[in-house]
Amino acid sequence: MKNFFKMLLASILGMLIVNILVFVILLSAVAMIGYTEPVAVKNNSILKISLDKPLEDRSGIPSVDVINLKVETNLGLNNILYGIEQAKHDNRIKGVFLELSSVNAGIASVEEIRDALLSFKESGKFILAYSENYSQKAYYLATVADKIYLNRFGGIDFTGMSSKLTFFKGLMDKLGIDIQIIRHGKFKSAVEPFTLNKMSEENREQIRSYMGSIWNYILQTISASRDIKIEDLNRIANNLELSLAEDALDKNFVDKLFYEDELNVELTKYSGGTGLNIIDISKYYTTPLQAVDGKDKIAVIYASGEIMQGEGETDIMSKNLIAAISKARKDSTVKAVVFRVNSPGGSANASEFIARELEITKAKKPLVISMGNLAASGGYWISAPGDKIFAHHTSLTGSIGVFGLIPNIEKAMSDKLGITYDVENTNEYSDFPSLTRPLKQVEKNYIQKNVEYIYSTFTEKVAKFRNLPVEKVDSIGQGRVWSGINAFDIGLIDYFGGLQDAVREAAKLSGISDYSILELPRELSTLEMLMKTFEAKISSSSGNELVNSLKHYEYLINSIKNFGILAKFPYEIEIE
User: How many CB atoms lie within 10 A of CB 521?
Assistant: First the structure.
């Protein structure tokens, strides 16, 4: 008995010690997140910018390593833009070094950073770019630099643009799943992966159109920066002429070939020859350039991800976003609102609820829209109310169209798993909508009526806000996707520019010059960020991260899961 109590006491003591250690670790991690060490920037420093981590419009949740007491936070596009602007006026910063061996950002985000760097060059400071291997996006960004360097053993991917779609019809047929589609718009190609084995001619036409306009813009930019004729650029791409690093040097794509140790010597020379002081933008960036205690404010509201109804912490949840918009409207110190949209759309209902809140806000104070990589379908629905709309040449937008998607898994369950269903209704359509039987014609008519109503509401709202005839909106709608260049030509946007351009326009419309930036929705508190990190760690330990990381699987599951009437971008797309 005596030994039993000794062991019990030892166990209790051990658990107590473990709990104390865990508490200390948690407390230390919380303290680290809440504490930002002052940045000591030496004279003649070079600001380093790399885009090797996924780039969102706004910085994400910190990743906390409680064992090693380390905190990592992915910078947002907003941080990078503010950092570049800050460096432009910082006499301690001599220039910018772009390390572009990996660029993990959308093409419009790359364009926005490039434009910010063009503004930075007005200060007379230098920009240098280096990569072990340049992707097409990386090289497009690199052409803003005064000098472009390439590893002697590297190369440049310069082959033109491609858009590859994945189709699931064959898989659905094998599984016995019938995806029932009801849509409006001949270009509303979100449904094509489930109904076809290849692109429709309408879809191929729109992809060729917006991709061609983006490629031509990129060629014009490269041509002007590197003094290479556009026809020569196309020839080089068509014939795969950049096989070796020496080819890139011979054809004026780069200025010098360096190994990394030789690069450091070059950077030291540019920094003044007294030593190499490189500061990463993640450590340099502190706050927006405008004073945070400014009396007047411009609210920048971020809407990133798929549009969904309800509350939550991920994507664009209608109730959360509406609350943020309402807060900005009711705040007397907020003189204008900039609404930053980066969304493929989603729920038609949620899109309309958000658009309504923006319309109410627009009646009270200036509302300026800033489009990121993608503001299409529902993403355009929530953009349309703006007084002015900014987008990049390379942004994708439009896709004004609606579709309904209801899968029928009856055959899959019976033939593959031996599961059958039976139902007893009080009325003819009590089990509508059902995933375990085909739609009846009356039910199809019911959904079609809703689709037509939502489409007409969508087009009428766009016509009203953009001061266009409904017939014109219908003709450029039909679910068709447009590049920012095309969208400007047909009246869907007003200006080319990024987030900072939109902020300046908002200040102009509200008649203010001194202001601070209020970013909404609010950022999570230190403790909330820590808890979110641990939740993510627990989720990843379940072993599902491998499956969920598979892009095709994720797209397929999300498409089937979000059945109903949607205003959503056609497909997952990455332009490289």
Answer: 17
341/344 Cα distance (integer angstroms): 9
How far are the Cα atoms of 290, 385, 437, 485, 513 from residue 504, in angstroms, in the given order? 12, 19, 55, 21, 9
Q: Does the active-site annotation cover 45? A: no
Q: What is the DSSP string of 461-502?
A: HHHHHHT--HHHHHHH-TT-EEEHHHHHHTTS-SEE--HHHH
In this structure, of 114-128, 174-188, 374-388, 558-572, the range with the lowest mean pLDDT score is 558-572
181-185, 401-405, 487-491: which is most confident: 487-491
Q: Considering 109, 189, 343, 377, which one is annotated as catalytic?
A: 377
d(CA 299, CA 401): 30
Whether the pLDDT of residue 152 is over 60: the answer is: yes
Q: Which residues pair with 483 in a beta bridge?
A: 396
Retrieve residue 555's tokens.
Answer: 């797209």
Residue ranges, CATH 3.90.226.10, the chain: 45-158+242-284, 297-523+552-568
Q: What's the pLDDT score for residue 275?
A: 80
In whole angstroms, give the CA distance from residue 488 to residue 395: 11
Q: Are strands 481-483 and 256-258 parallel, antiparallel or unpaired?
A: unpaired
CATH number of 45-158+242-284, picked from 3.40.630.30, 3.40.1390.10, 3.40.605.10, 3.90.226.10: 3.90.226.10
pLDDT confidence of residue 568: 66
Phi first, then psi: give them for residue 556, nearest 5 degrees: -65, -50
Residues of the chain above pLDDT 70, percent: 79
> Dihedrals φ, ψ of 69, to 5°?
55, 55
147 is catalytic: no
Which neighbouring-strand residues pair with 519?
Answer: 300
CA atoms of 440 and 164, how far apart (whole Å):
35
- What's CA 467's distance to the chain center, in Å? 28
Nearest to 371 by CA among 226, 519, 188, 497: 497
**Span 352-365, mean pLDDT?**
97
Fold of the domain spanning 297-523+552-568: 2-enoyl-CoA Hydratase; Chain A, domain 1 (3.90.226)
Q: What is the mean pLDDT of the chain?
A: 85
Q: Is 574 a residue whose pLDDT tops 80?
A: no
- Measured in whole angstroms, the distance separating CA 20 from the mean position of its chain's CA atoms is 41
pTM: 0.85
Helix, strand or coil for residue 170?
A: helix
Residue 384 to residue 428: CA distance in whole angstroms: 40
User: Of these residues, 88, 94, 137, 188, which one is catalytic?
Assistant: 188
